[in-house]
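ping. complex inputs:
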Amino acid sequence: MTILGLLGLIPFFACAGVVAFAPPILPAAITSYAPATALIYGAVIAAYLAGAHAGAMFTAPASENRRFLLGQVLLLVAFFAALAPGAADEAAMAIRHIVVAGVLLALWAQDRAAVGGGALPAWYGRLRTMLTAGAVGSLLVISASLFFRSGF
Amino acid sequence: MTSATSHVQSSLRSNDQSGLPQAAAVLAYAGALPPIIAAMLIWLQPDHLRPVTTELMLVYGGVLIAFFGGVRWGVAVMRPGGPSFASLLGGVIPLAMSLPVFVLDAETVRFVIILAALPILLWDDLRATRRGSGAPEWYLGVRTPLTILMGASFLAAFAKVLTS
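pong. complex structure:
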C-alpha cells in the first residue's frame, strides 16, 4: 500500500520540480502546463480520498458515520479551484494551489479524526500523514514559485 | 415496484442499524442528478451553450470514476488482516482510468472512457463483493441502479454530441 501511495505522489513531485526549477532542457509547453496539471491532479486525488473515506465508513461503526458528507463538499471545492477560468493569472493560480492543498489537509484531518475514533486503522493514519505531507508540500512549493514569479 | 427498487429497499432496511445506508443512498442518488440534468440540457439547450455543459459533464464523469476507485481503496483498508495487493489495485486502476478524462481534448474518447469505465467498475465491484473482499451488499444494491442511470445519461449525451 505504501508503494502504491508513493507512486501517487510522483505527479505532485514532478510538477513541483518543473515549476520550482524550470529546467531549461524542458520545452516551454511542459513547464507552462505543470501548475494546471498539479491542480487538476490534486482535485482528482481529493475525489479519490473522499471516496476512500466513504468506502471505509461503509464498514465503520455508526458513531463515525456522521462526517460522510464533508468529503463530497471538499472535493467540489477542489474542483472549483482547479477548473475555474483564469489560469493565465499566476497570483490567482498560486491561491488555487493553496485551496487544493487546504482541501487535502481537511481530508487528512477527517481521516485522522476517524483513526482517533477507532474507525480507521492506525497504520492507515500514518500512511495518510506521510502522503498528505508530500502532496501538500508539492502544492505549496508550486504556489510559492508562482507567487514569486508574479512579483506580488 | 420494480425488482431493482425492492432490492434496494430491502438492502437499506437490512442495514438500518448503522444509520449510514439511507444517508449514503440519498447522497448517491443525489450524485446521479448532475449527469441526468446535463444530458437533458445537452439535448435541449442552444448549440452555443452545449460545449460548456458537455465539459462539465465529462469532468463529473471523471470525478465519479476516481471516487468509485477511492471507495474500493477505502473498503480494502478496512479488511480484517489488512488489504491485499489485488484489492488495492482494484482501487488504483479506476484512478488511472479517470486521468485521461481530465487531460485529453477529444470529447469522443473521453465519453468512451467513461462509458466503458462505469460498467467495468460495477462488474468488478460485484465480483469483489461476491468474493467477500468488496463493499457491503447494500452499497451494490444502490450502486447498480445508479450506474444504469448514470450510464444512460452519458450515453444520451454522447449520442447528441456525435450527431451535432
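Chain A has a mean pLDDT of 86.
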